[in-house]
Write a structure and sequence with these properties.
five-stranded mixed β-sheet; rod-shaped; mainly beta; 174 residues
């Protein structure tokens, strides 16, 4: 029996199951009980929305013998994380990086784009420091969190400009 992802936002999972030819294969623990009699089958199992689905697979042969159950739990999650809370950087600076303080759902992956390169970090659920490399000029930073099921939070935007030109020397009238 194949193993589904621990978390999914898909409404069903596919399980590949090999059993004795002619056996009745049963998958229980999802939104409905699914059965088949093929020896190697791929079953699409509907999941109970936004819940742990403790899938259990058994096979019953023609003589009525039932196999031990094989557990294949998966959690359906279609709820996106809340938008991350992101500190506001200075409007302009001369450094080539900025540190943002980001608070996002624990265990989610925080992603920052729009700077010199993509930055990702696992969220602790507290205030996490993320160092973002910047390009010269305007940087529009887009910050989001993605949970284990692949749901994306709303994007939070922050802007910062890197100024690398030195100011003009003060002039004096003679």
């Amino acid at each position: 029996v194949s193993t589904p992802a621990a978390f999914t936002k898909d409404p069903s999972v596919s399980l590949t199951i090999t059993a004795e030819d002619g056996s009745l294969v049963t998958v229980a623990g999802g939104a409905v009980v699914v059965t088949s009699t093929a020896s190697t089958i791929v079953l699409s199992v509907p999941l109970t929305p936004n819940a742990l689905n403790p899938l259990s697979v058994t096979a019953r042969d023609a003589a009525g013998n039932v196999s031990s159950a094989i557990a294949r739990p998966t959690t359906h999650d279609s709820i996106p994380p809340a938008a991350p809370v992101v500190s506001t950087p200075p409007a302009s600076l001369s450094d080539t990086s900025v540190t943002l303080t980001v608070k996002a759902e624990a265990g989610s992956t925080m992603t920052v784009t729009g700077g010199a390169s993509l930055v990702t970090k696992k969220a602790t659920g507290g205030d996490d420091a993320i160092v973002v490399p910047l390009k010269s000029g305007a940087n529009t930073l887009l910050v989001k969190a993605t949970d284990a099921a692949g749901n994306d939070s709303p994007v939070v935007t922050r802007s910062v400009e890197v100024v690398t030109d030195a100011p003009s020397a003060p002039g004096g009238a003679g």
